[in-house]
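Project outcomes to date are best conveyed with an example. Our students and postdoctoral researchers have been running inverse folding experiments weekly, and each run begins with a structure described purely in tokens. The record below, which covers 381 residues, was selected by the lab manager from last quarter's runs and is presented without edits.
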């Protein structure tokens, strides 16, 4: 007599169910992502078609791409609402962050910035300028005040800022061009060295990438905090880095700082070109390694820029040294601290090149070469 087929064990039926459910979730997720991708759009067409009552010039981009997609267009000047101020931008500066947004890379960032097209189509963050209009409830600022700070869309003739956001009074001894170079780069250096590095006077601090936007501020801030500073840069920039206050310079084209017989208490890395093993070799047993970033558009669009941060994150719990990446946060208190440091002469922004707003694409192209010496500034019409 034929036997009824034996029932599969419970665990195998559960595994099958789990596999099917997992496949369904992945498939649904894929479809949702594809739909979100094709629906992702921006306001470019509507904005171009709309008539402008108070036009202003701004750098815009409607699609991700190289600096070739940037356009100088007329857009509507914003009107300040409650706690907002309209600022006539006198100068702005560009940061690697800008070409990351422009290119939408690493691709992961498009989950927030717009999948197929940039959701926000203006560029720039760092600015300096003069308050021209204040909205209801603004305290602490008035028309005519000279300020600097960070606000999306800074590559424009005007920006709208809130009175409690990342802005501070511009010191009188600093030009608008210098002040515009400060926000992202100097805040990163300050927060990396003071808050994450917790630098103590006399400690040995190494700045990898001492001649760039972040590096030129980092050398001066580390020195102001009383550290013994070693700057890593190429020979052509050695004199400048020493003049900024570095006690010594390692020319990376001739010498490898990770092979030196020195232990550093803090390493601030703006280049991200060394392995975790190399870095640990020259880090004191209780030392701190702060990864800021590194790499140009050629470093890969997928996970290339994330490899070192992930490695330091994974390694962190198993070593005596503190290792990790830091993301700077724009805030008014730290901008004020930097204002005071500039006022007292402890920090002076270094300007490499200056471009008019209409040539902002060239400024981005130059920054993308990774050869900037200090900050690249944009001046307004
Ligand atoms: N985590 C954050 O919150 C944050 C904030 C700001 C910036 N960042 C990131 O930090 C990095 C640096 O930003 P940045 O504004 O300073 O960039 P940058 O101004 O474009 O840096 C250019 C400088 O890097 C130097 N450099 C290039 N290769 C080097 C190497 N192998 N060794 C030493 N120096 C080298 C160049 O000097 P030479 O021409 O002499 O090589 C140049 O002076 C970027 O990746 C940026 O995205 C992160």
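After processing, the design step wrote out the following sequence:
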């Amino acid at each position: 007599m034929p036997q009824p087929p034996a029932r599969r064990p419970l665990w195998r039926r559960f595994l099958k169910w789990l596999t099917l459910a997992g496949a369904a979730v992945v498939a649904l997720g894929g479809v949702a992502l594809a739909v979100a991708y094709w629906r992702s759009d921006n306001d470019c067409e509507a904005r171009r078609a709309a008539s402008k009552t108070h036009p202003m010039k701004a750098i815009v981009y409607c699609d991700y791409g190289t600096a070739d997609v940037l356009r100088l267009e007329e857009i509507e000047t914003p009107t300040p609402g409650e706690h907002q101020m309209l600022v006539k931008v006198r100068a702005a500066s560009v940061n690697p962050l800008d070409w990351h947004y422009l290119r939408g890379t690493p691709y992961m960032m498009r989950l927030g910035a717009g999948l197929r097209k940039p959701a926000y189509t203006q560029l720039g963050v760092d600015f300096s300028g003069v308050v021209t209009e204040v909205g209801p409830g603004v305290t602490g600022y008035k028309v005519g005040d000279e300020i600097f700070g960070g606000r999306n869309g800074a590559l424009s003739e005007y920006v709208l800022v809130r009175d409690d956001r990342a802005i501070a009074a511009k010191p009188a001894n600093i030009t608008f061009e210098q002040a515009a170079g400060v926000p992202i780069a100097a805040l990163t250096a300050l927060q990396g060295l003071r808050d994450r590095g917790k630098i103590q006077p006399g400690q040995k601090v190494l700045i990898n990438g001492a001649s760039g936007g972040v590096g030129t501020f980092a050398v001066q801030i580390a020195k102001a905090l009383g550290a013994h500073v070693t700057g890593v840069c190429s020979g052509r920039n050695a004199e400048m880095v020493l003049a900024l206050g570095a006690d010594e310079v390692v020319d990376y084209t001739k010498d490898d700082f990770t092979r030196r017989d020195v232990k550093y208490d803090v390493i601030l890395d703006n280049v991200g070109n060394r392995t975790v093993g190399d870095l640990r070799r020259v880090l004191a047993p209780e030392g701190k390694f702060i990864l800021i970033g590194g790499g140009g558009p050629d470093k890969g669009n997928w996970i290339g820029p994330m490899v070192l941060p992930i490695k330091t994150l994974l390694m962190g719990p198993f070593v005596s040294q503190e290792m990790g990446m830091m993301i700077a946060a724009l805030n008014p208190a730290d901008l004020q601290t930097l204002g005071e440091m500039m006022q007292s002469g402890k920090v002076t922004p270094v300007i490499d090149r200056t471009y008019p707003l209409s040539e902002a694409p060239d400024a981005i192209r130059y920054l993308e070469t990774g050869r900037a010496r200090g900050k690249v500034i944009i001046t307004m019409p």
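Residues 10-39 form the longest helix (30 residues). The chain has twelve helices and 15 strands. The training component of this project remains on track.
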